[in-house]
Amino acid sequence: MSGDRPSLISKITGNQGALEEWRAAVAFERLHHAWLLQGPRGVGKAHAALLMAGGLLGVPGGDTDGSVAQLIHAGSHPDLRIVSVPVDDKGKAKSEIPVDSIRELSRFFTMRPALGGWRIGVIDSVGELNRNGANALLKTLEEPPSQCVLFLVAHDGDFVLPTIRSRVRTLRFAKLSGEDTNAVLKDVGLNETDARDAAAMAPGQPGLAARYASTEGLAGFRAANSMMAARLPPSAEALSSMAKAAGKSQVSFDAALEAIRRQLLARASEESAAARAGRFALQVSQIGELQREANALNMDRTQALVKVVELLRDPATS
To answer: What single string gives the DSSP state of each residue in 153-200?
Structure first.
């Protein structure tokens, strides 16, 4: 069970082309057994998968309050399985989806639908499968059972085996417009100022922006922005303030690093000296790699921030 489960919502904002392609397949009974929802993080792919699954399971369009919808909300619908990264006893997400989760999903597909109709699986996301998990998934795709549909969520940059891609139908999702992003963030209850700052953290990606928009996330983002607004390398006081705000939680850590990366990218694009621009771009890459490593290895956030500080103190970018 994941700690960050997508919810069944009545509509998807943006990416109507992908949804129309799905609806046409359903209407003309050309329902492929596996669908890859590909696009940036935080644009509604997992929500779209659940909306599509709900339609097949008997949820009327726009109705999220009926009995079937309530089963989906509760995670107890007998014909739906959502597979994602599990969390440990402390509520911290693990680094990958275990192969046993995919094997259990394969066994689930061998059973007849409990309520008639379809058996549906959602994997969120394919990029979090290890090699064994990907190979187990491939076996299911090679011999698809009848009356089963599988939705695979893939974020841009995720590696998806070519043999998996060749056995699925792809729906492509894109970043949302600024107007749609702000509309989604206001729908989830953010005020004007927080919605603006959250949208700046993840332009066109309201799901990611909403994740950052907690009190700690916004504090981490604003502290990093304040630090980066000064001349590089930042002062010891600015670094200490940023590290204190960014180190409070995983969200504040991710939000602060996102702010730093965006500021460095902006400086790289404005820099006339090729060597300095290249150095800013390299720092962006290094910080992104450090963040992935810290999350994958459950590295202490303070230790990771010390490494970020060392990168930002590079005199080549002062």
So the answer is: EEETT----HHHHTTSEEEE--PPPHHHHHHHHHHTT--HHHHHHHHH
